[in-house]
Amino acid sequence: MKQVVCMISLVVALSSSLFAEEKVADALAVRIVPERTWEDGKRIIETQPEAHFHVIITNLSDKPVRLWRDWCSWGEQTLSFEVTDENGNAIVVKRSARSYRKNYPDLDLIPPGDHKVCEVSFGQTTDPTSDYGTNAPLPEKGKTREVKMKAVFKIPEDEMAKEKKVWTGKVCSPEETYTIHRTR
Predict the structure, then answer these.
(1) Residue 90 DSSP code
(2) Is the dihedral of CA 41, 44, 81, 30 positive or negative?
């Protein structure tokens, strides 16, 4: 009986470690790349129509990683921003949910050491996959506003993620100071 219990424990331990390897723990890094940086070192995020900045998601592992594409409902809320304004107020900036004519679980495969580039806009844009302006902490027209901000990339573990072998977890960029510049 003792041998059976030990054998079952070994099988459970081995299957757990195989699952952990398959998940590719600590596989991703996230970084915000502002639209530009001024001479004084300020990282600038413009809000004029069609202006954008980028979020780079890097596969740090030695295996390909699958991520939801942001055009489908599984991927539309994977990227958000935690912003702290000059008064210490915390704001979560995320894309508004939208309706779909077509919707199916679509994914990107990120090779080892490669990147996924996400285009983000805090201003008006015609591309709904990059528009985060609905609750962004925008300054008044013609003004700037300094905020502390980090990008958050998160995919919850659910049945579809398991079925499609999509990476699940949460990873954040470093929190840094950005200047939001609103020209119009």
Answers:
(1) E
(2) negative
Mean pLDDT of 104-109: 95
Distant-in-sequence, close-in-space partners of 134: CB < 8 Å, separation ≥ 6? 95, 96
- The tokens describing 136, both together, are 């962004």
- Which residue type sits at 183? T
Matching residue, tokens 């054998």: 7
pLDDT for position 26: 78
Give the predicted TM-score (pTM) of the model: 0.82
Residues 132 and 113 sit within 8 Å (Cβ to Cβ): no
CA distances from 95 to 37, 45, 92 (A): 25, 17, 10
Is residue 178 classed as helix, strand or coil in its secondary structure? strand
Q: How many CB atoms are located within 10 Å of the residue 183 CB? A: 13
* Three-class secondary structure assignment of 91-152: EEEECCCCCCCCCCCCEEEECCCCEEEEEEECCCCCCCCCECCCCCCCCCCCCEEEEEEEEE
Task: Kindly indicate whether the domain formed by 25-181 is annotated with CATH number 2.170.30.10.
Answer: no
